[in-house]
Amino acid sequence: MYVFKRDGRKERVQFDKITARVSRLCYGLDPDHVDPAAITMKTISGVYQGVTTIQLDDLAAETAAYMTVTHPDYAILAARIAVSNLHKQTKKQWSSVISDLYHYVNPRTGEPAPMISDETYNTVMKHADELNSAIVYDRDFNYQYFGFKTLERSYLLRIDGKVAERPQHMIMRVAVGIHGEDIEAAIETYNLMSNKYFTHASPTLFMAGTPAAQLASCFLIDMKDDSIDGIYDTLKTCAMISKNAGGIGLNVHRIRATGSYIGGTNGTSNGLVPMLRVYNNTARYVDQGGNKRPGAFAIYLEPWHADVFAFLDLRKNHGKEEVRARDLFYALWVPDLFMKRVEENGTWTLMCPNECPGLADVY
């Protein structure tokens, strides 16, 4: 059985060589419970002709991760194997990585498609030696396997689908993206983040230092108007926020209820449910940051709205599909008066905002 090395050379699969590589990453782990030979045995059983050393490392890391149920140190070992594998595939010098990302050219159009902003690129090139020397790559080995794979899957920048950044590169990109020319503050922020004293929210990790440097996490939006223009203008706003990795909180109690009269067409409204299905599909289509994580739309409704019962059923697993929107998050915007009526076991009235104008501004 042969394996292809990273430089393209073909070499026979060697049990002892795999075991030795895994053993070198077992420092500080419990030798009574972590067995490199056992990982090698399980890894070898999944090897096929023509496998690459990259795939071999992936298989060894996954094997160690599965063995976490026997001892937690296997999770640390799995992360170390995965991190070591990434280090072998990526450049060590951060400024070189930034240069590659900045000078990226779309292979389909031949047009420049920089993934780093002009400001960040110029700052890094100006202070390359100082910033490169500040990075401590051993800190990448402090991640657990699940955490590292999450970074690898969604947070680390890629070139033509291949991960180009290391975790420490991402952290320094964030630090420089935030502080710019203040290199002392950038390095201080890098050290605090890489030593896990704090972290930034996902949009900052996704976008800092890039041309689309939108760093905010959450946006609260009011429906612009109870009209086609208002509904779709608000939908576009939500789509643009989600595109740039923001989460959305939207209130919809200004939208008229099912059966309410529509003066412009002499018809009746379909209510909240069909509209929210459109928002649901937008959240699925326009995911956060370009396929980094699902769109997150939280929909709020005051409990006097006449469609409140249909609203509360939208995430149910059973029922007709045309009255379900399971990818949105839902919440009631509960006023004090509602809770007083609950305490008194009193009567609660449902109303349509079109027939009771101004109600959304009162409670």
Structure, explained:
The protein has three domains: 2-88; 90-135 and 160-207, no CATH class; 218-361, no CATH class. Strand 4 and strand 5 (162-163) form a beta hairpin. Helix content is 45%, strand content 10%. With 363 residues, it is an alpha/beta fold. It has helices spanning 15-24, 36-45, 53-66, 73-89, 94-102, 118-126, 128-134, 145-155, 167-179, 183-194, 202-207, 228-243, 272-285, 308-312, 336-344; strands spanning 2-4, 10-12, 51-52, 158-159, 162-163, 218-222, 247-251, 261-262, 267-268, 297-301, 329-332. It is elongated. It is an enzyme of class 1 (oxidoreductase). Pfam families: ATP-cone, Ribonuc_red_lgC, Ribonuc_red_lgN. Keywords: ATP-binding, Deoxyribonucleotide synthesis, Nucleotide-binding, Oxidoreductase.
